[in-house]
Amino acid sequence: MTLLGHDEAWRQWRDALSGARMHHAWLLAGKRGLGKMSFAEAAARELCAEPGVAQPTGPHPDVHVLTHQPKDEKEERKRDEGKPYEVRRNITVAQIRAMQQKLTTRPTLGARRAVIIDPADDLEKSASNALLKSLEEPPTGTFFLLIAHRPARLLPTIRSRCRMLRFPALGERELADWLGTRAPEADAETREAAARAASGSPGVALDFVQRDLGPLHTLMARIVREGDEALDLRGRLAEAVGTRPDRERIAAILDLARAVLANELDRKGRNGWPGLIDAHAALVRLAGEAPTYNFDPGLLVMEIGTLLASAAPASERADA
């Protein structure tokens, strides 16, 4: 099934697949939530399929996926029991080494196999260096699909060895209509708010609805537009987030805050409020630090609220 916005990516992939020489490494680039992993899995199965060879409907023996592992043995047990579990912050060099060991044998079902790394921009430095060796001298019949939400974080030498396949952001109207089919339980106002906040990402829009981020979006928008001198709105924001948000919810909240500022920038114009641009840049830095630092969730939410408040026009007048 072709997902929303994937038509051009499929055209380029299949043109290459039918050509005389398929490039051995692909970089699937685009913001989080565009369905890049779904594309990678389906594309890898097409790559490995051969006429007359039955293909499994479950996990494919020639499609190897490297992603975040459980952070410890306790979380491994949760995963094995089908429960939610916490993961490591990075893809490790040990995972790359284990993958490389598998590549010393022949593919199981045919002449080709695929290695998917999701996301490649979370590789440890040593893991990136180890992967580079495989990209420079790929084993015969092995193809790499690297998923990147922020391609600039990858080593330039890795990027230079990959063919780029870009996944574009979508329009608000297109997203809202899509949510009508994927999340019919959400009312029109929620779908439109999700489409605005998602900045073109179907996954983020769906996450907005499923995580019930509407109340947070309303509070964040009020803070940006009205300020929060008495700290009342920031207190309500912290209460709405909850006392123990998991890492995924924190990431969704950071994405939402950046989207609120980006939407306000579009509404006011980039020459309107310098505070908006500064606050957005600070949130981008905070989002980059959050996965690697043990922030107290309550303090992190208050910091998000403070950055939003600093972008309000009342804050600029107070600083003048």
Automatic annotation (TrEMBL):
One of its GO terms (biological process) is DNA-templated DNA replication. GO terms for cellular component: DNA polymerase III complex. Residues 61-83 have a biased composition (Basic and acidic residues). Residues 51-83 are annotated as: Disordered. It comes from the Bacteria. InterPro entries: DNA_Rep/Repair_Clamp_Loader, P-loop_NTPase. Pfam families: DNA_pol3_delta2 (PF13177). This is DNA polymerase III subunit delta.
